[in-house]
């Protein structure tokens, strides 16, 4: 079953874009890895680990989250390009995709 990515707008409505299982699986793998790394960071802080080690692991968590987000935005770009090539209305405008991309920056 495909994962549905929804994007909220200030006006309060949603657009939906389906992610195929390969993309969803890749994103979930990255997010679960980040979840494990974050649990490790929390344990390190609770145990009084050295600051440098904690920050190194925290940077890894941040990078894993960023990569998952960029992967989803890249998928959105491909969906929009494919829709245009088929002569269909893309699920998101270029401006909407740009907002998503910049939200990750």
From TrEMBL:
A Pfam family recorded for this sequence? Trns_repr_metal
Provide the GO biological process annotations.
Answer: negative regulation of DNA-templated transcription
- Show the coiled coil region(s): none
What are the record keywords, sorted? Copper
Task: Spell out the molecular function terms from Gene Ontology.
Answer: DNA binding; metal ion binding
- Which superkingdom heads the taxonomic lineage of this protein's source? Bacteria
Q: Which CDD domains match?
A: CsoR-like_DUF156
Q: Which PANTHER family match?
A: TRANSCRIPTIONAL REPRESSOR FRMR, TRANSCRIPTIONAL REPRESSOR FRMR-RELATED
What protein am I looking at?
DNA-binding FrmR family transcriptional regulator
User: What is the organism of origin for this protein?
Assistant: Catellatospora chokoriensis
């Amino acid at each position: 079953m495909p994962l549905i990515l929804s994007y909220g707008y200030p006006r309060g409505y949603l657009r939906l874009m389906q992610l195929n299982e390969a993309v969803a699986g890749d994103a979930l793998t990255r997010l679960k890895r980040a979840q494990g790394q974050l649990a490790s960071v929390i344990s390190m802080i609770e145990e009084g680990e050295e600051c440098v080690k904690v920050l190194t692991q925290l940077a890894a968590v941040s990078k894993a989250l960023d990569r998952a987000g960029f992967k989803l935005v890249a998928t959105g770009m491909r969906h929009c390009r494919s829709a245009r090539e088929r002569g269909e209305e893309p699920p998101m405008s270029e401006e909407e995709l740009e907002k998503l991309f910049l939200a990750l920056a």
